[in-house]
Structure formats: C-alpha cells, structure tokens
Amino acid sequence: MNPRSSETHAGCVSPEINKIDVAFIGGGLACTLTLLNLIRRLLVTRGSAIDYGRSRLPLQIAVMDRDGDFGCGSPYGSRAHPMLLLNENVATMNFSGFVDWLQEHRDDWMELLHSKCSLGVKNWLSSNMQALGAALQDRSHYLPLYFPRCIFGLFMREQLSSAITAAEATSIARVRLIRANAVSISRLSDGSFAVRAANGNTIITRVVILGVGSLPPESSLLEHIPGYVHDLLRPSPEASLSDVLTALRNAHGIPRSLAIVGSNAAAMEAIYAIRHQRELTSALHEIILLSPRGQLPAGLPSRKRSTFEPRMLKQLLQQSDLTADAVLRSAVADIEAARRSGYTSLDYSGPLIRAFSLVLDLLSLSERRAFVEMYGSAFTALNRHTPPEYARSAESFIEEGRLKILSARVGAVERLSGASIGFEIHATRLEGSSTVLRVAAVMNCKGSDTLANTQPPLLKDILKPDRDIARLNRCGRGIDVTETLEASPGVYVIGPLLSGHASELHAIWNLESAPRIYSLSQTLAGRLEEQLATLR
Length: 536
Known about the structure:
- This protein is 39% helix and 18% strand.
- By secondary structure, it is of the alpha/beta class.
- It folds into four domains: 15-73 and 153-215 and 452-534, 3-Layer(bba) Sandwich (FAD/NAD(P)-binding domain), CATH 3.50.50.60; 81-147, no CATH class; 228-298 and 386-444, FAD/NAD(P)-binding domain (3-Layer(bba) Sandwich); 311-382, no CATH class.
- The strands form four sheets. Strands 1, 4, 5, 6, 7, 8, 16 and 17 form an eight-stranded mixed sheet that branches.
- Helix 1 (29-45) crosses helix 18 (514-534) and helix 13 (324-340) packs antiparallel against helix 14.
- The protein is globular.
- The chain starts with 18 loop residues before the first strand and ends with a helix.
C-alpha cells in the first residue's frame, strides 16, 4: 500500500528528474489531493501524453516531503499511532471513495488493528464492535464512526499509488517521490524555479505547489526540558507520554500533576492517550487543563429530538449592510441559546454553519475580510467537537476528580526554581484574578503558531522580498494569494498556509478541514491543468 519513492535515503534526487514541470512541496493531504485531482482530470481530458510543443513527453512531476510520509503527512502517517482517531467521522471524510475502500480492504486494516496490542486500539475495537459487524452487510454503518487516523492514511497512500500507476501506464505523467527537506525556492531568469533541498540537491521546475501543512507550535525555551511536551506527536506519542511518566515518578515536594495548556483537538487527543496508558494513569494525581474558554469540545449529541434553529443568524438574511461584528454576535447568541436548551455542538453545529454560510455570502468583500481576519478562529472554536471515545475519556477523569478545567489565560510557564523536575504556571482567570500552579509536567496543546511568528527555513526564505515568491497576507496568518490561489506567477498555495485569505470566492480562516481541502484541491487542479497546457 506504500507509494513508490525515487529514493531510499533523504534528499537523493535522480539526475533524470532534476528538470521537471511541476514540483509539489509537501507530501501530505493538501498536495496529495491536488495531485490526485490533477491526474484524474488529465486522464479524462487528455488520455495520452501532453504535447508541450517540444515533443510528446509525459508530464514530469516531483513530490518533495521532509519525512517521506507521501499521501498522508504527519496527521495520518508514521506518527499517527493506531489509537489516535480522526477528528471527523467517516461520513465527513468520505471523499474519493473512503467508505468503499474500507469495505474492500476490511481484512487488511482489521488485521493491522488487531496486531496492535495497545489498550487504546482494543478500546476502539470493543466500543465499535457492533457497528463494525453490521458494516459487513451494510457499509453505511461505517459513516458515524471516528476511525483511527492511520487507516485513513493507508487509504490515501493507496489512492496516491494507484493514481501514479495510472498516470505512468498511460504516459500522462511520470511522478517521483523525493524524501527531502526543501529549504529555498528561487525564481530563475526564464521564469522557472530552483527548489533546493537541505542536502544541497536542487530541482528545476516550471510550476511550484506549496502545501507544507500546519505550522509548528509557537517555539518555547522549555522544548527540551524533561517533563515539558511541546508537541505530543514529536518525536512520537509514546516518547512524549514516557517523558511525562518519568517526570511524575521523579517529582518530589510537588503534586504529581500534569498541566495541559489549551482545550482543542490536541488536548482531547492527549487526554485520550493518557487514559489508555495504565502506568501513566496510575502515576498521575491530577490533570489541570487551562484555556481561555475553559470548555472541552463536545463528543456526544444530546438526546433532544428537536432540531436546533439558529434564529439570530437567520434574521440577518433579511437585513442589508451586514457587518462582521453583527454576524459573530448573532452566531454567539445562537450558540448560547442552544447550550441553555441542552444542545451540544454536535446538535447545533450543522444548522448553525448552514445558516452562517448563507449570511457570509451577503457580506461585502471588506466585511468578509474583517470576519476572516478577526473572528474566523473564534467562530471555529465555538463549533468544536471531538470523537466520542475522546469525550468519554475526559468524562471518566472528571468523574474520578482527576481532571480540573480552568478558564484562564496562561501568561508564563517557568521551570520550578531549585528543582530538577517541575514547572510553575502563571495564569489569569477570566474574572481577572491571578493564579500560580506548580506541576510536575506540562503539555503544550495550543495549536499552530501564526506564519508571522513562526517561519521554518523554507517559509522564511520565500517570504524575503528579493525572492519574489510569496508574501504574508494582511493578518499575518498565511500567504497572500489571488483568487486562483497563486502567490506569484507559477507558485500556488494549498492547505493551512491559506489561513486568513478572503476574496469573492473564498473565505478561509483555517484549513484543518479535510473536506474543505479536498474542495480547494479540485479548484487548484483545474487551474494547474489550464496552465500546464500553455507551457512551451
């Protein structure tokens, strides 16, 4: 199920592919879906090799990825432990034939899961045993399930491998997968680009698609301090949890407590992972979760039979001269009304987002930009949800009195003075009072930093003015692009780097939604096909 790579070690580029037509920078979901859609379009519209005016040759494509996780990237690839689940159910992730693939390859992925002896995997199989059994006869029973992320990764790898095989069998394209860390992109005098890898190897390409995925968390001086986990997935969940366990066992004179900073998807994933590590759960006295809102994402719908109606947002449909402020206020009012009536985000999110989409279309371009740049992230936070398995793990810790949730904004995290293990957290509660916590370990779950603050080498390089490659958008969260997702002539952007983009066609404040990425990848694939047909 693994797509073929042009190399077996980092950065080796075959001489025959040093000059290519298209370079995808990033091997994760965004670039993979764009490549899949491009190949599918070419198979339908061309059916034979592309004529560039020089000779009838296949399109030469390279995909560069730092980790070699082609087809899936970090969320669904080698770092995705089988116990970690998709943030959306199968119904939401069912693009490109995922449900059909699950049925056809059931024996393969079931064997993989059964071969993993971790408690988390066993819990998932046990919790969903009835639905998985029913799906043998009716695959619709897969739809409400939150599958292990690695299974979706297997699906995407096979989709990529099949597309490459079809492209090469019909001489439409030749695709090479290169495990290499791109660190710079330079525009050459003829309009092509030189993409240089960290090891010094360079490829020359006519078109660049930049889809490097989510940015890393905000950097911290504590990243390599024992007991501080900066990113649960790096280097791996097992290593991160082992570090926390060691800190708890070696804590002296302070509570054997873990502070989790943030309450987003990463926090819920951490709680779930901890719950299914017996030694860690036994050693842990308490989890203290700190976030400004102090609320966990909902994992289960209410038992209410009625459908929630977002009345305030619907009233805006009858108004003119709408403002971004009015839209957010109405959405917040609807959500507060929903919660007072006993609905969870799984109940109100669908109706709310449908009404919101209609209202968003009525905003002027300036107000749409204002919403995207100022309120988009807050709106997403109001509609968060989590897999039911994650929610149940949090509820079990709460029932035991071992999960405390504080509505507080963290100001500083410092090493405990005079101790080899331990941290002091300074935070401000919503009502304005200050609090200081002493804990044995800290886990950062605040999510990605903004592009303006965090710039990996490649992004730092291409944002230099003299490069003429890309520039920050107005809010500093992503790269400025045109309606066709072009950062500069020949350079396209797909994935989370589009955060903060607003236009007549698009309103993107984050791009963590796989279905949304799929939709945008179809648009970009169409644009690429048009441009590649004109190249000489």
